[in-house]
Amino acid sequence: MRLVELYPSLGLLAFSSTRFRSAIRILLQPVVAFIQNQNEYQFDAIRIGSQLSNATIRELEDFRRGIYEKKSPYLLTETHLSRIDEAEVDSRSYHVIARKSGEIVGCLRLTPAPFECQFAQESLAERLKKSRNYLEINRFVTTNRMPGLSRKLLFLAGTFLILETPFQGLIGICKTGNQNRFASFGLEPLGEVFHIPYRNRDEYVVMSAPNRRLVAHAFKYLILNRSKSPV
Question: Tell me, what's the pLDDT at 142?
């Protein structure tokens, strides 16, 4: 699939130089092709939530709920829902959706400030001040036994950010045990480990990366894996 077919409304770009934008576009086209040509998963065109159909929103809600009931029940509690208006965050966020045989098997949400994590842990507000021109990764979930899907969702999110939005990087929180998944695409820890009171005693860390680092890691990934099967 060509880049313009996956991203139907290429327009706003994060870089000011036309020549530089063209070079970045040429560099990132192989990233999307590398992901799409494996034919393991199908990816919906990335859109903001307010542009998704009611049926797709219901699919997303049902898919997430099924995952949360087993792995993250605290996201379904009254404590969480009283802090975060999920419908409002969904409507102003971009959604990366993966399917297999027509069914959703993975998704990722990209949210502009105010970030979802700020409502979960108010003490993060000061730490995130300098990242208000970033997009936040959240609701990053996949079903079991989907090899390579997490990596593909993250790479598609990064290329979308760079090529189709004016935002300058990615930021997100993750459990400390999941840092490597984010680090593989250039995100690095920002500040100390912290806890979210109603989420058991899990340790979390803020991970972030500016666009230039995302591009560098996409290129590095292609070089290292061009003669291998995707992971």
Answer: 94
